[in-house]
Amino acid sequence: MTESYLDYSKHRSCWRHMVAHLHAQKKRMTKREIEEIKEIFEFTTPCFSNTFPHHERSKRRTNCKNIIIHKEKKKLDTAAFEWYFRNLWKSFSDDKKSSFGYLDCLWFSFYLKTSSREKVLNWIKKKRIFSKKYVFVPIVCWNHWSLLILCHFGESLESKIRAPCMLLLDSLQMANPKRLEPNIRKFVFDIYKEEGRPESKQLITKIPMLVPKVPQQRNGEECGNFVLYFINLFMDGAPENFSVSEGYPYFMKKNWFGPEALEHFFRKLDSIPKLDL
Question: Which CATH architecture has domain 64-271?
Answer without folding.
Answer: 3-Layer(aba) Sandwich (3.40)
